[in-house]
């Protein structure tokens, strides 16, 4: 039977009659294929009928106000009748439900390293009803009292502090009011690091086979957690709203991380094997700060309906970078935003499928539609808009409004309109006008620099107010001055910077394309690597890539910049970001197929030069080595690195570098069956770390492999898409066309009711009117939101694979 997603109208109607909800949950996780779920729901109702959500139950029994009744169950909902409109209702639902292996619901995972079994409830969106009967919507928040029966050898983690545990029976303290989607249970033989700080119990946990990695990073993880917690205590008036704070590296999580109250879950790729780079450490700190911010903005105060997903996530992105830098001490983190996040937003906003950052609630008619609005506009542009708002208002006014909002809606629900009202109460500026211009209209403006004689003049092409920093440089690209400006409809002369090179948006404060005057661009294209401020360099690299898209700059000119300036770049994150842009956007979309191999060779040449120039800087060398492994056509070089497990300079290969070199040999026709088997045996954790040993096969799919991967086999979490990572991004001399294989895989994902990351087509559907099309659209498109700032794809280095050779439109 088709699973129908909750509609906005249904949610509003149910929220209008149901109140004062609480749950007592009892979960028995000791089965192998199924688990027992007992949900006691207490609530007030002004109607005699309603329904609970419960998906995919194999058996259901129902007790309503003490009377056993036959369950009216259709596979997705349990109908309730005869409810009291005066007294508190108590409904008990006992269900048998299947474990899943796709990362949605009660997920089970057997570690191939040591055979340990882990069972975790991965909820979010409307997946709570795959674990227990509930009112599965954000604005019916409730207190949860949870008890779990698990293997006696397991440790069980949940949202609340442990009240008692004995012989596999774990009882947890009741939570404050939270949505059902934010419940978490994680059971298994976790390796744990626990401590107390500021009167609160903290813990980091990982599966037992990652004990070495957790112990390696434990001190830094503890320091980062405490520093972020202390900084939030300074920024936010409301005290931390929960009774403990656990953080768990879990296997098979579809999202990069999930902000479960008091028990945050992270993909365990964030605890990498081997060495960890400075860039990875910094991004992990951002993710930690991002999820912690949700404890207030998202968990205590929660959006009413899914149209405001962008606001919760964008706020967390803004605070994540801010707190990881100011609190945890990771410097220049805005570079990552400029070089990776905002380009995603620009590309998304320039397509025909663009849409406003903030849709209306009616634009998201059901939860399936909600799953299709996670994209570069919702996240990257949304985050940039909040950065602009905070800069335009000033930090004091912005945080005053934020704190008023969080206090007013503590353990309650709110909308964008409520947030705007809170900001308006603490500022004299036209907040509502700003929202209309920035959040309700698609597209982005262009900020141009023109000249009136020697005097630079800023000109806005668009209709949004912009506040940003302008930097001026002399002919040697030494900084001569910076100033804050607010640019509206009128051109703005800058007489104090007459005769100088001018860079608008030098601090990355606004979201707009830049068009420099010829004099400034000539100086910067000749001396980009001499600009001292890494954030300004990131802004300029991002601007250059955007100009390629608009055809104001050719692909060859962009690659000239790469060859000339990138080998001298001191920041590994800029190196990785620029090369990712070149490899995944510029070459595939702006270089004819007949010249693609030559363009890749130019990137490889730059990578070789950068590696040679980085012999004394391990972080840069690692970035360049991964890039060279991803682009080199020198099979001897790649084979030598893989055999020695180090590059020629003696630096040990990162796992990510190895995972580029293997497919490189495959793309060159040098990966035979013996090599593939050896790589798989070396990694040994295809399930445990899906970016592992299977990837060298992806460049050599034959018809049988394609049929198997696109056939009827049941998908297992993220293994299929990651096993096929890069399909269509390599020179396909043989085997099935990548587009055909992608169609097969996307179809299998849709049939399974689960999105497979990496297979989402461009031009994603926006809010399809035909409800029958929304679930396939959700399956095909929702993975975009799973590749966001808190996604370890960026943590692991991004898409630096060989580009496809067919030219397509952006």
| Overall strand count | 29
Fraction of helical residues: 25-40%
Shape, per Cα inertia axes: globular
Strand order of the largest sheet: 5-4-8-2-1-11-14-13
CATH superfamily placement of the domain at 1-188:
tricorn interacting facor f3 domain
Query: What is the CATH first-level class name of the domain at 1-188?
Result: Mainly Beta
CATH topology heading of the domain at 1-188: Immunoglobulin-like
Rg of Cα set? 26 Å
What would you say the CATH architecture of the domain at 1-188 is?
Sandwich
CA(first)-CA(last) distance: 38 Å
* Helix count, DSSP H or I runs of 4 or more residues: 24
Unreliable spans are 686-703, 705-714, 725-739, 750-770, 780-810
Structural class: alpha+beta
Mean pLDDT: 86
Question: Would you mind describing this structure in some detail?
Answer:
The structure is a single chain. The chain has 810 residues and is of the alpha+beta class. Among the domains are: 1-188, Immunoglobulin-like (Sandwich), CATH 2.60.40.1730; 446-510 and 516-534, Immunoglobulin-like, CATH 2.60.40. Strands 5-4-8-2-1-11-14-13 form an eight-stranded mixed sheet. Helix 5 packs across helix 7 (377-393) and helix 5 packs parallel to helix 12 (534-549). The protein is globular and about 85 Å long. The protein starts with 7 loop residues before the first helix and ends in a 15-residue tail after the last helix.
């Amino acid at each position: 039977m088709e699973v129908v997603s909750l509609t906005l109208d249904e949610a509003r109607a149910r929220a209008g009659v149901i109140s004062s909800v609480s749950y007592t949950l009892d979960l028995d996780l000791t089965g192998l294929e199924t688990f027992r779920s007992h949900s006691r729901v207490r609530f007030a109702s002004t109607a005699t009928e309603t329904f609970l959500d419960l998906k995919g139950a194999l058996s259901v029994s129902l007790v309503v106000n003490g009377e056993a009744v036959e369950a009216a169950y259709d596979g997705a909902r349990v109908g309730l009748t005869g409810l009291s409109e005066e007294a508190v209702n108590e409904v008990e639902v006992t269900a048998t439900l299947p474990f899943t292996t796709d990362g949605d619901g009660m997920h089970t995972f057997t570690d191939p390293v040591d055979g340990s079994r882990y069972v975790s409830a991965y909820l979010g969106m409307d997946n709570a009803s795959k674990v227990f009967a509930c009112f599965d919507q954000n604005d019916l928040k409730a207190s949860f009292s949870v008890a779990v029966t698990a293997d006696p050898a397991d440790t069980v983690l949940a949202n609340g502090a442990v009240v008692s545990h004995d012989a596999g029976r774990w009882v947890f303290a009741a939570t404050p009011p939270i949505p059902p989607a934010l419940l978490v249970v994680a059971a298994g033989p976790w390796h744990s690091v626990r401590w107390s700080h500021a009167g609160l119990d903290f813990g980091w946990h990982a599966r037992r086979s990652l004990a070495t990695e957790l112990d390696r990073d434990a001190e830094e993880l503890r320091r980062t957690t405490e520093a972020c917690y202390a900084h939030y205590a300074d920024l936010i008036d409301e005290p931390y709203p929960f009774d403990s704070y656990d953080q768990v590296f879990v296997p098979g999580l579809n999202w990069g991380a999930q902000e479960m109250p008091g028990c945050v879950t992270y993909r365990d790729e964030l605890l990498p094997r081997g060495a960890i780079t400075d860039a990875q450490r910094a991004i992990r700190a951002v993710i930690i700060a991002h999820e912690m911010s949700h404890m207030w903005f998202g968990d205590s105060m929660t959006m009413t309906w899914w149209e405001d997903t962008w606001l919760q996530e964008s706020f967390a992105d803004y605070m994540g970078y801010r707190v990881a830098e100011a609190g945890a001490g990771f410097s220049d983190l805005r570079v990552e935003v400029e070089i990776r996040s905002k380009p995603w937003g620009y590309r998304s906003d320039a397509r025909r499928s663009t849409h406003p950052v903030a849709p209306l609630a009616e634009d998201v008619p059901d939860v399936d539609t909600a799953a299709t609005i996670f994209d570069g506009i919702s996240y990257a542009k949304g985050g940039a808009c909040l950065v602009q708002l905070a800069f335009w208002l000033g930090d004091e006014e912005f945080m005053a409004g934020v704190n008023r909002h969080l206090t007013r809606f503590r353990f309650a629900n709110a909308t964008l309109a409520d947030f705007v009202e809170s900001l308006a109460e603490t500022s004299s500026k036209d907040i509502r006008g700003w929202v209309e211009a920035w959040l309700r209209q698609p597209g982005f403006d262009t900020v141009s620099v023109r000249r009136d004689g020697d005097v630079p003049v800023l000109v806005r092409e668009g209709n949004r107010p912009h506040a940003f920093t302008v930097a001026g440089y002399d002919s040697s690209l030494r900084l001569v001055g910076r100033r804050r400006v607010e640019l509206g409809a009128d051109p703005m002369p800058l007489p104090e910077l007459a005769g100088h090179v001018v860079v608008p948006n030098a601090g990355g404060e606004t979201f707009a394309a830049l068009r420099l005057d010829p004099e400034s661009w000539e100086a910067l294209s000749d001396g980009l690597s001499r600009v001292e401020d890494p954030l300004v360099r990131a802004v300029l690299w991002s601007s250059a890539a955007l100009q390629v898209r608009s055809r104001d700059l050719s692909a060859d000119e962009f690659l000239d910049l790469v060859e000339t300036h990138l080998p001298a770049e001191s920041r590994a994150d800029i190196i990785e970001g620029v090369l990712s842009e070149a490899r995944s956007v510029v070459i595939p979309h702006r270089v004819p197929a007949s010249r693609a191999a030559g363009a890749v060779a130019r990137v490889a040449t730059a990578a070789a030069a950068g590696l040679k120039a980085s012999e004394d800087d391990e972080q840069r060398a690692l970035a360049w080595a991964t890039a060279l492994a991803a682009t080199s056509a020198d099979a001897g070089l790649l084979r030598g690195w893989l055999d020695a497990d180090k590059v020629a300079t003696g630096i040990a290969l990162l796992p990510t570098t190895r995972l580029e070199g293997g497919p490189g040999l495959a793309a060159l026709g040098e990966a035979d069956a013996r090599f593939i088997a050896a790589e798989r045996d070396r990694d040994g954790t295809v399930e445990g770390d899906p970016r592992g040993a299977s990837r060298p096969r992806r460049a050599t799919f034959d018809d049988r492999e394609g049929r198997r991967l696109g056939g009827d086999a049941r998908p297992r979490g993220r293994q299929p898409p990651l096993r096929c990572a890069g399909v269509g991004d390599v020179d396909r001399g043989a085997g099935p066309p990548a587009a055909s294989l992608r169609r097969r895989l996307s179809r299998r994902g849709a049939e399974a009711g689960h999105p497979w990351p990496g297979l989402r087509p461009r031009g994603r559907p926006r809010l399809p009117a035909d409800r029958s099309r929304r679930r396939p659209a959700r399956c095909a498109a929702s993975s975009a939101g799973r590749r966001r700032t808190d996604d370890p794809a960026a943590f692991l280095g991004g898409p630096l694979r060989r580009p496809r050779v067919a030219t397509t439109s952006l």
